[in-house]
Amino acid sequence: MTQSEDVLLALLRVDVTTYLDLLVLDYQDKLLFVVLCLVKNLQDAEEIVQDTFVKAHQALLNFSSEQWDTLRLRAWLTKIATNQALNVLRSRNSHAHPISIDSPEAQGYLDEHGSHQNSSPESILEQRETFSELRDQIYELPDSWRIPFILHYFGGLPYTEVATLLRQSVNTVKSNGRRGRQRLIEMQQYNPLLSEVSTPSSVTEREVK
Predict the structure, then answer these.
(1) Fewer Cβ within 10 Å of end Cβ, the chain: N or C?
(2) Residue 118 resides in a domain
(3) Are 132 and 101 contacting, i.e. CB atoms less than 8 angstroms apart?
(4) In CATH, what number is assigned to the domain containing residue 75?
(5) CA dihedral 37, 43, 44, 49 (to 10 degrees)
(6) How confident is the model at residue 10 (pLDDT cuts 50, 70, 90)?
(7) CB-based contacts of 93-98 (< 8 A; 24+ apart in sequence)
């Protein structure tokens, strides 16, 4: 758990409703990226993320002291969002298509997510193009590889929790997640964004091997 997460948890524990905006500010973009890569549709992803914070707010209001003590915000929020995303995937029409990266809605998200306040126009463009490329290549992965890869490397969940969510064995999701990552490396010749993907701190050494 990071220091900033510790501070946010302490504030939420004092008053969930007052400090809910801080929770949204810290985790909205992270969750949106994960969910977008899962459901491959921006409108669905935005609705899922919005509903995730509503559910989180309601749950936190009724948390016991023990639940607060053991709460890992990132993993917990990811699991709430993932359950909803999986429901969308199960119920979606097989002919549904992801929103185009050329649409104004998608470009607006890429502009906001991929830029930095002090970056030059050239670096912002390069970041946006790299992000778009990474996302499109993630879209190309088969569901069986893409979902565990995203949940583990971007969602911060150890493979044991991914296995529970997907109702699969740990060995299966671990193997599929690694295959997804390896395929992306092959497609991108090691995209700079992917090279920064690290194993979540909550994952034990044994799970990484």
Answers:
(1) C
(2) no
(3) yes
(4) 1.10.1740.10
(5) 80
(6) very high
(7) 96/41, 97/41, 98/40, 98/41, 98/42, 98/139
Alpha helices by DSSP H, the chain: 3-14, 20-39, 42-60, 65-70, 73-91, 104-114, 121-140, 143-149, 159-166, 170-188, 192-195, 205-208
163 has a pLDDT exceeding 90: yes
If one counts the domains in the chain, the total is: 1
Look at residue 190 and give its three-state secondary structure.
coil
Residue 47 inside a domain? The answer is yes
Dihedral angle, C-alpha 21, 54, 157, 19, nearest 10 °: 20
4 Cα distance to chain centroid: 18
| pLDDT exceeds cutoff 80 at 164 | yes
Per-residue pLDDT band for 121 (boundaries 50, 70, 90) equals: very low
Domain assignment of residue 122, yes or no: no
141: left (phi over 0), alpha (psi -120 to 50) or beta: beta
- Domain enclosing residue 43, as ranges: 1-95
Contact predicate 149/141, CB 8 Å: yes
HSE, side-chain direction, 13 A CA sphere, residue 168: 16
